[in-house]
Design a protein that fits this description.
The chain is an alpha+beta fold and 494 residues long. 29% of the residues lie in helices and 24% in strands. A hairpin with a 4-residue loop joins β7 (139-142) and β8 (147-151). The longest helix has 19 residues, at 423-441. The structure holds flavin-adenine dinucleotide. Flavin-adenine dinucleotide binds next to β5, α8 and β12.
């Protein structure tokens, strides 16, 4: 095998100068590559087969030591450090099909990377084949029909940006470098979800490459069971090469910012949220965070976004401002797409994070007490409530695979740091969050799969009555459970 041959796919993709693919086999003088199977065993990949896969792709196929390999395998959470045997930098559905077929035929461990934000690191694997979709990131807006078609590796910011040009928007996450694929397939909360529903509620179609390597278009008319499952059932059914969204007419300017309260007023802020959060108009999204701000100290902060008629913003926001005397109030007119990037830097790639989260149906006084106590004891935690309600809760639990339609909010407790910790320090930080979470967990009702990709038994319980239907879809499209690095729906056919 000649090195020139192995480079062919990279050259064809026009990335050869940026990513000079090395010929691993020639480099090391061996004719095969060790890899990990779906079940965790080991297997040997013959050089000729690897070469054939490289030749069949438009994007690059990378192995350890190749330029671009470390970049692809580094995901958002800096604590995750895994080394796939191969990384397929897919440039389109055809590349996805080649890579997934290669993996299925050899029963390889498969990871799919969209935006790489899986906190537990489900988008990268040790020893298997990683499909990196980052290069599949174009968005096309259909202004007349108010829809957008986004490639499977698009980030939330790509969609916000393109839609805003036409005075349109749809629900997306609150950090613009989060992957639209992972976020939407698992649900998708965001600053517009009370008005327009979750991201998955706005998913009207998809192109999915199933594990057989077949490309299927999915909508309510075509493969409707699969469409239902994609709205919250995660990445269990194949690799989504493109997502189609319903867009909505949305003033590109919103009235948004923070209203911060001193720590002594934190209880009043949380009680207001508990008692009145559900009564707020759909156009008002209110997230709340307890956090320690350098040079200021502990604060309770409302992040308010008014996406309705600007003339009605003041009256909608008035009750928030009356909770107590704010120590800061930054609410003002700002482009929605700009506001969507405000947390990008504080949540930048490489951060180390350990998080626990759960959905809160009943925001009780007891929860408020416990939250304040936990933060008092651990000022380095962030305790965050992402609001639900409004249009999210006007769906029945079985309208989509995403079942949680009665939550007040999504509670998250995390510890995040940028410095390289010692192992001892890491264990301490993680175990603190775990034990404190036990105190808060009793106030939750299930969890959001995108933030807790837990074990199968928990996933089963979490999907509740929707689980058997999800298993039926899984049995049909992925009976061998090749797609299992996710909140896994276990097929009953294996
Ligand atoms: C900083 C940060 C902010 C967040 N903000 C929000 C928020 O505002 N709202 C919210 O609801 N959630 C939020 N989340 C959670 C987020 O929804 C999940 O982490 C989600 O999985 C991220 O998707 P991704 O594509 O970036 O992740 P990845 O790590 O790339 O993938 C996550 C999972 O989805 C699968 N996947 C990704 N793309 C595809 C695809 N095209 N086809 C098939 N499978 C795919 C992967 O295989 C993996 O199992 C946030 C997470 C972080 C770290």
């Amino acid at each position: 095998m000649k090195r020139r041959d192995f480079c062919k796919s990279a050259l064809a993709a026009g990335v050869a100068t940026a990513i000079p693919v090395q010929q691993l086999l020639a480099k090391t003088g061996v004719s095969s590559l060790e890899a990990v199977t779906s079940g965790g065993g080991s297997t040997t990949l013959e050089g000729a087969a690897v070469q054939e896969l490289a030749d069949s792709m438009r994007g690059a196929l990378l192995t350890s030591g190749d330029a671009g390999y470390d970049h692809s395998r580094a995901i958002w959470n800096g604590m995750i450090d895994r080394h796939p045997a191969l990384i397929a930098r897919c440039e389109g559905a055809a590349d996805v099909s080649q890579a997934i077929t290669f993996a299925r035929e050899r029963d390889l461990l498969v990871a799919v990377r969209g935006g790489g934000h899986s906190i537990s690191g489900k988008s990268v694997c040790e020893g298997g084949l990683m499909l990196d979709l980052s290069d599949m990131n174009s968005v096309r807006v259909d202004q007349a029909n108010r829809t957008a078609r986004a490639d499977g590796g698009c980030l939330e910011g790509h969609i916000d940006h393109e839609a805003a040009m036409y005075g349109l928007a749809t629900t997306g996450g609150i950090v613009s470098h989060t992957g639209a694929g992972g976020l939407t397939l698992g649900g998708g909360f965001g600053r517009l979800c009370r008005k327009y529903g979750m991201a998955c509620d706005n998913l009207i179609g998809a192109d999915i490459v199933t594990v057989e390597g077949k490309l299927r278009h999915v909508s309510d008319a075509e493969n409707p069971e699969l469409m239902w499952a994609l709205r919250g059932g995660g990445s269990n059914f194949g690799v989504v090469a493109a997502l189609e969204y319903q867009l909505h007419e949305q003033d590109p300017m919103v009235i948004a910012g923070d209203i911060n309260f001193a720590w002594e007023d934190a209880r009043d802020a949380l009680m207001f949220y508990a008692e009145h959060g559900n009564e707020l108009p759909d156009e008002l999204n209110l997230n709340v965070i307890l956090v320690t701000v350098p040079d200021v100290g502990r604060v309770a902060s409302f992040e308010a976004v008014w996406s309705g008629d600007p003339n009605k913003a003041d009256s909608a926001l008035e009750p928030l401002r009356k909770v107590a005397k704010p120590i800061a109030d930054t609410v003002g007119a700002v482009p929605y797409a700009t506001f969507q990037k405000r947390l990008d830097n504080s949540n930048r790639h490489g951060v180390r994070m350990y998080m626990k989260s759960g959905l809160v149906n009943d925001f009780s006084e007891g929860l408020v007490r416990e939250v304040l106590e936990v933060h008092r004891e651990n000022p380095t935690y962030a305790i965050f409530f992402m609001q639900s309600g409004g249009a999210v809760n006007r769906h029945a639990p079985d309208d989509t695979a995403f079942p949680y339609r009665s939550a007040h909010s999504n509670m998250m407790v995390w510890h995040q740091w940028f410095d390289m910790e010692t192992d001892e320090e890491r264990v301490r930080r993680i175990s603190n969050v775990r034990s404190d979470w036990e105190r808060l967990r009793t106030h939750t009702d299930g969890y959001y799969v995108n933030l807790n990709e837990e074990d199968a038994a928990k996933t089963h319980a979490n999907y509740g009555k929707n689980y058997p239907r999800l298993v039926q879809v899984k049995n049909k499209y992925d009976p061998g459970n090749l797609m299992h690095l996710n909140a896994n729906i276990e097929p009953t056919t294996t």
